[in-house]
Hints:
This protein has 13 helices and five strands. By secondary structure, it is mainly α. The chain is globular, with a radius of gyration of 25 Å.
Amino acid sequence: xxxMKKLLVAALGVLMTFSLAACSKTVATTSGGKITEQEYYDxxxxxxxxxxxxxxxxxxxxxxxxxxxxxxxxxxxxxYDELKNxxxxxxxxxxxxxxxxxxxxxxxxxxxxxxxQAIIANTKITNKMLKEQWKTxxxxxxxxxxxxxxxxxxxxxxxxxxxxxxxxNFKKLAKxxxxxxxxxxxxxKLPAFDSTDTQLDSSFKSAAFKLKPGQxxxxxxxxxxGYQVIYCIKNPGKGKMSDHxxxxxxxxxxxxxxxxxxxxxxxxxxxxxxDVSIKDKDLQNILANYTNPTxxxxxxxxxx
Length: 304
């Protein structure tokens, strides 16, 4: 479930609805008395989760004003559908494990996309950065794999592929031999990935990037999961750097999104420009860690 957790800006887990009106409404009644919105609010603001909710609400409001026109409903739905397709039949279970509903996941996807726009607006990508990214760049490829527990089993699969190296035969072998229950019935096919992927074994990626469409590994690839045979379905090739400028820029922005110092700096800038005023004296310092960051981003990576 790593990818879903990584995607989310914050796993909020609680919803905080309150009113500061003089006459506080009743939230719940019990045999021991009622609980009012004011009582609930007073308790919630003392908790870390309650403070995180308010922090996220404030940030979302400011980001929405600054970058809301750059994130469409279709952008959110596209990313939601990609997650849903990736998890397949286990999507509902993944939502439940993350204390999410389809609606709250879409809210968090939108928060994430808005924050990404803020990163883009505050990141100056130089030609030097593009060249550095190009050194390790590999475009998205699509492969299928067969996972087995013993090297001898992998060699047996390879020997059969040497007699018939078609993808149709590979799919039959995957169904027969692979121990990866999530892919074996789909011919061992994996979601497309590039050089920035952090979930696949590095040995697996290194072997996969060397293959051309229709080729398979002629030796077992040892990974943390066992021995794997890889078949290349699609590999566009690296080509020239100028052909991949857009992808390189996206990779740089994605790396910035995963850098805590960059996030701290950008969020601090967004909030300072957002004219935020905390009216509750008990929550006056709720944004202190963001508006007074202890670390900054190199001026070579962000615009002033």
